[in-house]
């Protein structure tokens, strides 16, 4: 498969000028991002890399990082985790309070904000230094010690994150939060501020394409069962209330973030991971150009999970 030729085709045929969305302005720091940024990176099972554009520039990965925190929580809790968070698509906005009321404080899945806040509560409760241990996990699976939080983004989220604070307080009132609110939201805002590139995301997500094994070292970080569960959740819940559209158009498990990044994987044996970044979002909060690029990618390669 000539992945570079396919990526060159995507780069030549697509542009930020072709989309009509806007960058995520509700987080002030994200509103400053250049909407013209566009990059894509493919990492294959034979350790080959293919890319174009702004693929090595760091950006705020936002909700993509929820896959990492979920992975850590599953290592700690195993199947007991699902007593506190469900595994169903939400069908509602990712920051919905109404849904929590209907379902007595148990979030629909770990990728909506409420679900990721429950995961954050678990990590704050069980880890001595949750922020440092999150960084250690991501640095290990990427072999990149430079990965860090974007402190300006974290501060920007904290200054405007009233709805997330409300979600934690509401779940605490309903008995699904153990820790104090402040350290939970502090961890959550730092989680979402994680700064990575398409290249480092593609390397990180090879873990989920490769049955929980770090491709370069052969170390088993996650069990094959854990990876199966996470990939299923990415397939059904990874794109807010547009997961069905992504499955229909692209046909891969993946995760998006309001920083404009999307990462998707094709599992073993024809394994690859692919990340794309374009900050302009559609009305559902997903990268508009990124969605189009990944649809083109799986159409041209003919490789998806379906």
From TrEMBL:
It is an enzyme of class 3 (hydrolase). It comes from the Bacteria. Keywords: Acetylation, Hydrolase. Signal peptide: none annotated. The keyword Hydrolase applies. One of its GO terms (molecular function) is glutaminase activity. Pfam families: Glutaminase. PANTHER family: GLUTAMINASE. Homotetramer. This is Glutaminase. It comes from Salegentibacter chungangensis. The gene is glsA.
